[in-house]
Design brief:
Length: 195
């Protein structure tokens, strides 16, 4: 599956699970061999408000290279820096994190955009299914854990890209709708793309 380049900007409205908004800007990496993604999410979830700002560097295949994340809530301000070698080995704030071995993507709990990373990186053919474990960053405290998940490309009757998504640790599965740039258009119960 080939994808077109992402737009310069995209935005999602978060709904049902939380109320909020995410705005993202895409640009080619200064080296010209990948992408830099800047984003910000603000939300109210279970009576708690938070803001998560992030900058993610991706290689040409959309595999994560680095992520710098900051978060604010009533509990205070936090930051974390995440680095991967591209072979599934990770460091969080300079500390080797073996519990993330084998992960190739970062997945921010606060973000609908990060569901584009495994889809673009895997480039599945119709009917293909793949495991896509990710370094999962919690919105409230920026803690990082492993999240095992799967994606399977299916097409609707109009030929639109849909992916059966499952995250067994949360007992969650749904059908995600994507656009031709590999960005989520509809994440049932979580977010919908507004631009």
């Amino acid at each position: 599956m080939d994808f077109r380049d992402p737009p310069k900007a995209a935005a999602w409205q978060h709904m049902k699970a939380r109320s909020g908004f995410e705005v993202v800007y895409f640009q080619h990496a200064p080296s010209g061999d990948g992408w830099r993604v800047h984003g910000c999410t603000t939300a109210l979830e279970d009576g708690t408000t938070w803001i998560v700002d992030y900058e993610i560097e991706l290689d040409t295949d959309w595999a994560t290279r680095t992520a710098h994340i900051s978060g604010r809530s009533a509990a205070g301000h936090r930051t974390t820096s995440i680095l991967t070698d591209g072979s599934g080995h990770w460091q969080i704030d300079g500390v080797v994190s073996t519990h993330l071995d084998g992960c190739r993507d970062i997945d921010l709990e606060s973000s609908a955009m990060t569901n584009a990373l495994p889809v673009r990186r895997l480039r599945l053919a119709d009917g293909d299914r793949a495991d896509a474990p990710a370094a999962y960053v919690r919105a409230a405290d920026l803690s990082v854990e492993r999240l095992d998940q799967t994606y399977e490309l299916v097409r609707d009757k109009a030929g639109q890209q849909r992916y059966e998504y499952a995250a067994p640790a949360f007992g969650f599965n749904c059908r995600l709708a994507y656009d031709s740039a590999g960005l989520v258009r509809d994440y049932p119960g979580i977010a919908i793309r507004v631009t």
